[in-house]
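Schema walkthrough. Field components (list of strings):
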Amino acid sequence: MPIWLGYISVGFAYGVLAQKAGLSMLTAILMSVIVYAGSAQLIAVGLFAAGASAASIILTTFVVNLRHLLMSAAVSPHLKEWTKPQLVAFAFELTDETFVLHSSRFVTGDPLKTETFAINISSQCSWILGTWLGFAVGQVIMDVRLFALDYALPAMFIALLVLQIRDRVQVVVAILSGLLAVGLVLLGVGQWTAIIATISGATIGMVLEQWIKR
Amino acid sequence: MDQKVVVVTLLGMAVVTYVPRLLPLWVLSSRTLPPPVVTWLRYVPVAVLAAMLFPSLVVSDQHLNLSIGNIFLWGAIPAFLMAWKTRSLFGAVAAGMLTVAVFRLMGAA
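Field assembly_structure (string):
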């Protein structure tokens, strides 16, 4: 599964940055175990490094991760047969990457629980492994940029986006929400950007689809 | 850094991350959603990925960077082509990272 390699490399980048920010090996790994959210963890170590308060780090994490509300809602129609404890376990490991992977698996048929959990657990294990490796190497190397580790996340988003797109409406939605997000960031909207752009993009997609059907 | 403060912060982060992940699944999976809502939800993956991706490629420090020296944009080309032609997630990530690393070694940025 290529998602593991993606997670090891992004987790590695996080591990290096966590070490530079002054977290201990234990707390760096703890974050990957109990929070487990790629972009939020990278932002959080930046805030730790800048000496931000606990409250501001938690609030930023909340806003950055609010987009999972939409993802959780989006997979919900496929998981009607699942028990509550299974949903509780599934939700804990719902990330951008596993979400996209599962959405494409779920549309093709009945979601196999064992396979779904195998993907989730192995993905988080690669994330934790990457964290540990990154922290260890961070004690030795100076500059993360040299290894293009900061490009692991954008590259993974590109690949997931391409693999996700099946029709023209999706292309339009991707381009419009992407451009809107750029505009919002430039306007200084900050952490709310992903949520606003996603809601707008999905709404455009829905409207376009209804309009084409008529 | 005081690691006790870090642990308390992490616990807070874990809670605010987990609740939005669980809540919709918990509430919605037991009921049938109206068709337009289901359609809307199908566009969420593409929209959210694009919303995360585009700014990471063309915005740095709140400024639009569409210059020829933007190596993140150059890296997007092989990553895109690799994903499109081979459907390989790892191939695309590797191609993108390799391109960015090579550009940096050549001193582009």
